[in-house]
Structures are given as structure tokens and as C-alpha cells.
Design brief:
Blueprint (H helix, E strand, L loop, with lengths): L1 H19 L5 H6 L5 E8 L3 E2 L3 H11 L4 E4 L6 E2 L4 E8 H29 L8 E3 L9 H10 L13 E3 L1 H7 L2 H11 L6 E5 L2 H10 L3 E5 L3 H11 L4 E5 L17 E3 L2 H4 L6 E8 L1
Parallel strand pairs: 6-11, 7-8, 8-9, 9-10, 10-11
Antiparallel strand pairs: 1-5, 1-12, 2-4, 3-5
Helix pairs in contact: 1-3, 3-4, 4-5, 6-7, 7-8, 8-9
């Protein structure tokens, strides 16, 4: 995570800090005008799965690289309400200035990991893998997709440059399923898989005949998806999608798809409640 962070996310964290501190932290500077070494505790206030500890720490490091951390858990650990997760020591002004930004990242990422884990455990005895989508918060994708992996899910394509997914509007623009797949094969490098979204059994048959690598069964009822699996008959990988949540995913397990994708992992996961408490001078 450290290498990933230094290469890709420092600038995003700095943007978040600049959003919160346009010129100064006027409140902190009014009560703490000078340097004072202090310590604060990171407390869990809700059961869940922790994710984003390196990002949390990096917020304070970017404000002051002398900040010290004693973190007692690691990403992916299950944590309990009331648990002491660690302590942070440094300039009290830095601890106060970075508190909200650091917690925003950690709470958001831990909430996604927690929600993902709650669905992933339902699929653990099946062949089906749980995928995220591109339905992420702008400028938060790298953090949110990392949190999905921590929670036991898998990442679908990262962005539009990462893979070919022919959806309904692409198919409409191309003139049909067969036409869209043919055009994608002619344009894309041979190492790229071609996935196509289908909405009915006619489209399934067209996708198979055109040689799609992955066929996404979008917003189909369960019986239609089962029939689609029979038609595909192992000639393409299969994915089902469309309003998948923790409440309904168990109903999809026996369909036999290779993947289930859920935008809810990132767009509907509640935060995990965490807090910085007991700040004091040392």
C-alpha cells in the first residue's frame, strides 16, 4: 500500500487537505498558537472491518512527517465497538488539523470493507466472485476499490481505459450486439477481453455467436438468467448485475454465474463509526 500511496494518492490527499484548510485552521490556531507535543487515541465505535489505515496515517504525515503512530490493527481485521485501534503522537496543531480528513478516509474505506465483507461471506462456498463497479465517488475510486478488496471482494475494471464493456448505449450506437462485438474485436488489442451487457435471451444468443469473452446478464429475473447460462454453456464467462445488495444476493448464488457485480459496495455502504479521542499534551 505504501508504494501505491506515494505514486498515486498523495496528490488526492493533499487536495482533500486543501479543501479543508484553505489558509489556516483558525480554531486550532486560536487555542494552540505554538508547538506542543501531544497524543490522541483512535477509537472504534462500531463493529466492522477496518480499511485505510495507511491513508489515515498519511494525512498526518503530509502535514508533518515527524508524526508517530502506534497502530494495533491492520487492514482487513475485524474490529469491535470500544476497541482502541492505536495512538497518534505529534504536534497537537497537526493532530487537530488532520483529524477530520483522516477520519473521513478511514470511516469511508472501512464502511465499504465492512459492507463488502457482509456480502462476500454469503458467497464463500460458491464459485461466484463478488465484483465492484465504477459507481464510485469522484476522486475516491482508488481508495474505494482498495477497500472492496480488503473486504473480500474483487475489482472489476478500474476505469474506461482498463477494459472493454459494451453496455446498452454502446450497442445502440453500433447498431446491435453482433456489430458492437465485431467492431470491438477489430479495434482492441488481442490481449483485451470483450464483455457485453445483455438484457434478454435473444441478446445472449447474439453475444455467444459473436464470440464475447464475458456476458453480463443485466437486470434479468432468476429463471431467465438460468436459461441464459444454459445457452452460454461455458462458451463465455458470465456475470450478473443489477441492483445487487446484501438483502438479495443469497437468491443469486445457485444460478451458477462466475461473477456478481454490485454498485452498492461503493455507492451505498454506510461509514464505519470511528473517532479520535482523549487528546492531551505529553
Amino acid at each position: 500500500m505504501r508504494e501505491l500511496m506515494n505514486l498515486n494518492v498523495d496528490n488526492l490527499i493533499l487536495q482533500a487537505l486543501r479543501e479543508d484548510i484553505t489558509s489556516e485552521d483558525i480554531t486550532t490556531n486560536s487555542v494552540m498558537p505554538n508547538y506542543q507535543l501531544g497524543q490522541v487515541e483512535l477509537i472504534c465505535k462500531q463493529d466492522g472491518v477496518i480499511a485505510g489505515l495507511s491513508v489515515f496515517c498519511r494525512v498526518f504525515e503530509l502535514l508533518d512527517d515527524k508524526t508517530e503512530f502506534d497502530i494495533k490493527v491492520k487492514d482487513g481485521d475485524e474490529v469491535k465497538s470500544g476497541q482502541l485501534l492505536g495512538t497518534i503522537k505529534g504536534d497537537i496543531r497537526v493532530l487537530l488539523e488532520g483529524e477530520r480528513t483522516a477520519l473521513n478516509y478511514l470511516q469511508r474505506m472501512s464502511g465499504i470493507a465492512t459492507y463488502t465483507h457482509s456480502i462476500a461471506v454469503l458467497l464463500k462456498d460458491s464459485k461466484t466472485k463478488l465484483l465492484d463497479t465504477r459507481k464510485t465517488t469522484p476522486n475516491m475510486r482508488i481508495f474505494e476499490k482498495y477497500a472492496v478488496k480488503v473486504g473480500g471482494g474483487y475489482n472489476h475494471r478500474y476505469n474506461l481505459s482498463d477494459g472493454i464493456l459494451l453496455k446498452d448505449n454502446h450497442i445502440g450506437a453500433a447498431g446491435g450486439v453482433k456489430e458492437a462485438i465485431t467492431m470491438a474485436k477489430e479495434y482492441a488489442p488481442f490481449v483485451r477481453k470483450i464483455e457485453v451487457e445483455v438484457e434478454n435471451l435473444t441478446m445472449v444468443k447474439e453475444a455467444v455467436e459473436a464470440g464475447a469473452d464475458i456476458i453480463m446478464l443485466d437486470n434479468m429475473d432468476k429463471e431467465t438468467m438460468k436459461e441464459a447460462i444454459k445457452i452460454i454453456d461455458g462458451r463465455a464467462e458470465t456475470e450478473c448485475s443489477g441492483n445487487v445488495t446484501k438483502e438479495n444476493v443469497a437468491n443469486l448464488i445457485d444460478i451458477g454465474v462466475d461473477y456478481i457485480s454490485s454498485g452498492a459496495l461503493t455507492h451505498s455502504a454506510p461509514i464505519l463509526d470511528l473517532s479520535l479521542k482523549n487528546l492531551h499534551a505529553i
